[in-house]
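Quick entry, no commentary yet.
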Amino acid sequence: MSSAPWWTPRGFSLPHTAAPAPMRVFLVRTVGVGAGAVGLLVMCSSLGGVLGALLATRLCRRRGSARAMVLSQAVACPFALLLPLTTSG
């Protein structure tokens, strides 16, 4: 376990990995999504992480690390904005 504060890059992993847990509870209890569908969503996000890790070096070499970071956030963040559009059912 890292002794770094959570707000530093080294200590950021705990809240970053704990954040999806309430979303899974929300999907099951409020939206009514089945366990299999939640598992499929978790699998897709894990595959996205692996794909991002495979492409990160190439993207950083081609665009630079700062531009690669901004580009990855610009591509990923709009999907988080879809969460308020969920409805039960």
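second:
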Amino acid sequence: MNSNEIHLLNKIEEKKLEKGRPSGIWISADSLAAAVLIESTLVTRSKNYYCTVEVSGKYARGMMVVDKAFIEKKPPNYTIVEKVDVSLFERMLIWAAGGPYYKEWVKRNCQELNNSE
């Protein structure tokens, strides 16, 4: 995404990007989680799993463990988001930074797509 808002965010987090993300890719998990709560259509693929916070030291003390292998044989209690509509997320970030309302952009682009068919 090439916008003034993202360039500003990248400058703010430059040190973190240099240390933790050598590729320079900016990922904001908290923003993404909030966006999913606001706009559920952002999620394009998800799966349900049993998850728990492991406190005994059996697997990974103090971390959330996702039972993708179904070892515990317990019913799913979390939905894990695996893929999102990146374009919509970008529009939501711009909206959050004071840009145009993201749903208007989505509606306009869907109409343009339908008209071009």
